[in-house]
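Worked Example 4.2. Consider the chain below.
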Amino acid sequence: MDKVQKSLNDLQRRVEKSNKIVAKGDKLGYGDAIKLGRKSNSIVSTIKKAIKEYDGTEPTEAESKKILNQMKTIVDLTEKQLDGLVANKSHFEKLKVGGLVKKNMGKTSAVSEELSKVMLEKAPASLKPEAEELNTRRAAGFKKATAAFANSEGGEDKADEEDDSD
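Applying the procedure from the previous section yields the following structure tokens:
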């Protein structure tokens, strides 16, 4: 479980760093947008690693509760990031990187759904309602943001597979 915890700590830190970039709002430059794309690739890699590590464990109820609490923080941060992306959509479009945001959002949404599925499978019955509610929030946040960027184009080839691990 230590490896899972480390991956979740890494994930939380990377989302926090991404949020600092998004928080620049209309002061965000083209380089920031590319860096955000790289951070997104790093987040996707970290989620995949967490899935692999978590899939091979049988967490106790206490471990599951600790992970659920950390996932609440990560979902809160992710919702903040998605809201920030939507709020700054016109700026991303002006920078001609709306398609990059859309592409990375799709990749992150897909792997976060996989992680949620694994966590729901492993959650003890007592924590399932909370875990399901958290998954519903995660899915709703991505659905709203994905819809906002549905027709966005530009920058899709930027930051391809480049990982800004920290």
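The chain has a mean pLDDT of 94. The chain has six helices and no strands. Compare this with Example 4.1 before moving on.
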